[in-house]
Specification:
Elements: E1 12-22, E2 27-36, E3 39-44, E4 55-58, E5 63-66, E6 68-73, H1 83-89, H2 92-108, E7 111-116, H3 124-128, E8 139-142, H4 164-176, E9 182-185, H5 204-216, E10 221-227, H6 228-236, E11 241-250, E12 256-258, H7 262-271, E13 274-276, H8 283-291, H9 297-318, E14 323-324, H10 339-348, H11 353-359, H12 362-367, E15 385-388, E16 402-407, E17 410-413
Parallel strand pairs: 1-4, 6-7, 7-8, 9-10, 10-11, 11-13, 13-14
Antiparallel strand pairs: 1-2, 2-3, 5-15, 11-12, 15-16, 16-17
Bound molecules: zinc ion (ZN).
Length: about 425
């Protein structure tokens, strides 16, 4: 994999701020960050004398943090009110252009690392040759087409498998084409016509094989789990990350409802898997419904289920399940600039602010198996650094406006 040449410049400079995020202590502390060759070389006391030849970026008055990590986006999707129709109407080339633009939007909003959780095969070009992109990109970990069953969730991305040989062949191809994450659709999904979200579609043996194959190759594994049984099986298979954990069941009236299962939740807790809750997905649409005077019963149902989702998230937090920040950007009414909104909802849903910061930095890096080099302001880590104008420990909306973005030592958005 080639790195964007613009991102590896040899400059050596310092960032000074009285408020720099310290992962270990879970608070902001004064310091000077020395950056060289795209990496953090040292953290020195703020009073340290800087050599006159070195440049200094003064971020006093800003809160300085590692670049945000969004663990779940779909770069090819339009984030409109009808992303599937847009996807089907566009050619592969058009989607690739869209994907680069969406990735750039993530970067300028402060997301310096993103995982794509499902795309066509062609989009892996962005993972292989980020140096060819006409716009600056965040670090991308691409899952390529999700592994799915015939007619299963997102089958039109061409990740359909029929047996274990095809699962191995899929992961071989994924790795060869630049994929750096293995995604499976363990249940159906709401976006794919004909696929049932409350249905678990892979056996325990198949899920074990997928997670084991990913582990063997050092790739992070991620499982889409809406149905309760799909959560259980994926936790038993020890996927690095479980997406949504919706606890979907179909009730007597044929309506899909969220029924929290404490026993399955404890299986998740014991598995060590992280959870990606995407609480903020489509909240702009839901906010509109909340203000509407004459809602349909289906719309009222959606609002009730949203409240239950946030409640269930609080229960998972109480169990101590590690949370990671992802928002399914690209799906319905979920723009690529909105990672800040997921942070705000994580806090609203009961995650302490320091843990929400970890969910979007060090914790997310851990679920992506890159925590030895990404997600902290520490010596030897990639110089992915952002600044915001208010204290995220106090202000859940702090990430709405980033005032400075650096990716691997390259200033993407200079401080005003
Ligand atoms: Zn998704």
């Amino acid at each position: 994999m080639k790195e964007d040449p613009a991102v590896s410049q040899p400059a050596r400079y310092w960032i000074r701020s009285p408020t720099i995020w310290c992962e270990e202590r879970g608070r902001f502390e004064p310091g000077l960050i020395l950056i060289g060759d795209g990496q953090i070389r040292a953290i020195e006391p703020i009073a340290t004398a800087v050599p006159a030849v070195d440049a200094v970026i003064d971020l006093s008055g800003s809160w300085v943090l590692p670049g945000l990590i969004n663990t779940h986006v779909h770069l090819e999707f339009s984030a409109s009110s009808q992303p599937l129709a847009d996807f089907e109407a566009e050619t592969a080339e058009e989607r690739l252009l869209r994907a680069a633009g969406n990735a750039h939007r993530l970067l300028t909003s402060g997301v310096t690392t993103a995982r794509d959780c499902g795309s066509s095969w062609i989009m892996l070009a962005l993972a292989r040759r980020p140096d060819l992109s006409p716009v600056m990109l965040p670090r991308l970990l691409c899952s390529g087409p999700p592994i799915t069953v015939p007619k299963g969730h997102l089958h039109f991305m061409h990740g359909v498998v029929h047996d274990h040989d095809e699962i191995r062949a899929h992961i071989d191809r994924l790795e060869a084409e630049g994929g750096r994450s293995v995604k499976v659709m363990a249940s159906g999904g709401q976006m794919t016509p004909g696929s049932l979200p409350e249905e678990t579609v892979f056996t325990q043996e198949s899920l074990n094989l997928i997670a084991d194959e990913a582990r063997r190759r050092g790739l992070p594994s991620v499982s889409h789990v809406l149905a309760t049984e799909s959560i259980r099986r994926s936790a038993i298979a020890r996927f690095d990350s479980l997406e949504h954990c919706a606890f979907f069941e179909r009730d007597g009236q044929g309506v899909i409802v969220r029924i929290f299962d404490p026993e399955v939740a404890s299986v998740v807790r014991d598995s060590g898997s992280a959870m990606m809750a995407n609480l903020s997905t489509a909240t702009r649409y839901l906010d509109g419904l909340r203000e509407s005077a004459n809602r349909t019963s289906a719309e009222s149902h959606s609002l009730r289920q949203f409240d239950i989702m946030v409640e269930n998230f609080g229960k998972m937090v109480e169990l101590g399940i590690p949370m990671v920040c992802g928002n399914d950007a690209g799906v319905r009414d979920t723009p690529f600039e909105d990672t800040w909104l997921e942070f705000a909802w994580l806090v609203k849903g009961g995650l302490p602010a320091a843990d929400a910061i970890r969910a979007a930095t060090s914790g997310a890096a851990k679920a992506l198996l890159i925590d030895d080099s990404v997600g902290r302001i520490a010596r030897g880590y990639s110089a992915d650094i952002i600044a915001v104008a208010s204290d995220p420990l106090v202000d859940p909306m702090a990430f709405r406006h980033t005032t400075f973005v650096m990716r691997a030592g390259e200033v993407i958005r200079p401080s005003p």
